[in-house]
Design goal:
By secondary structure, this protein is mostly helical. The protein has one domain (18-30, 41-226). It is 70% helix and 2% strand. It is built from nine helices and two strands, in the order H-E-E-H-H-H-H-H-H-H-H. The protein has a two-stranded antiparallel ribbon. Strand 1 and strand 2 form a beta hairpin. Helix 2 packs across helix 4 (70-86), helix 5 (99-120) runs parallel beside helix 9 and helix 8 runs antiparallel to helix 9 (187-225). One of its GO terms (cellular component) is mitochondrial inner membrane.
């Protein structure tokens, strides 16, 4: 029984070929292609409004040097947002429940922010490892602690996204299984469980949006430290 709960997190295969790449590319099909017309439809207008809003929220804390990352961070935000929301649909697969994929997104981008700081302002970036006014006996310990906290940042990014989405999907499946089982035994309890399931689904929609925003927001904060 426990194995069936985690089957939803295994990558689907067709003729032995993993379909995770197809599920990652599918959200791009939902975005309307840009055109040169002055008057567009409502979907294109809504898409432009959302992109402008996301870009404004992410770029406000950054200076002009950080605005070069606007395209990368905004595209990542929309990508994670669509994947997380589509994963809540029945009989779908959520690639962001895979730690390997989240680490593949978090590690290169975190490393890029770190290398940017080391290239542009090496003294300031290295100065983050040792707070000002530290007593001399504590310098080796603090450097070790700050270095460790710096290196676990990409791991924390990937695990946070994976754990939150995995927990939400498991809760939805557990409650839906209980609701179906209790339908013939205790209909009143089953109706109450279904109501809780609907509320939980609404909560998971909010969690999917918040986790995508937090992932990109933390990357922008790491970038802010290095520019």
């Amino acid at each position: 029984m426990n194995l069936s709960f985690f089957d939803q997190f295994s990558s689907p295969c067709l003729l032995g070929i993993p379909l995770i790449l197809l599920s990652m590319l599918f959200p791009t099909l939902l975005l309307p292609s840009p055109n040169s017309r002055w008057i567009t439809n409502r979907l294109s207008t809504l898409q432009s409004w959302c992109i402008d809003l996301i870009a404004k929220q992410l770029m406000t804390p950054l200076n002009k040097n950080g605005h070069k990352w606007a395209l990368i961070l905004t595209s990542l935000m929309i990508f994670l947002l669509l994947i997380n929301l589509l994963g809540l649909l029945p009989y779908t697969f959520t690639p962001t429940t895979q730690l390997s994929m989240n680490m593949a997104l978090a590690f290169p981008l975190w490393l890029a922010t770190l290398l940017t700081g080391l290239r542009n302002q090496p003294s300031t970036s290295l100065g983050h490892l040792l707070p000002e006014g530290t007593p001399t006996p504590l310098i080796p310990a603090l450097i070790l602690i700050e270095t460790t906290s710096l290196l676990i940042r990409p791991l924390a990014l990937g695990i946070r996204l994976t754990a939150n989405l995995t927990a939400g999907h498991l809760l939805i499946q557990l409650i839906s299984t209980a609701s179906t089982t209790l339908l013939s035994i205790m209909p009143a309890v089953s109706i109450l469980t279904t109501t809780i399931l609907l509320l939980l689904t609404i909560l998971e929609v909010a969690v999917a949006m918040i986790q995508a925003y937090v992932f990109v927001l933390l990357l922008s904060l790491y970038l802010q430290e290095n520019i």
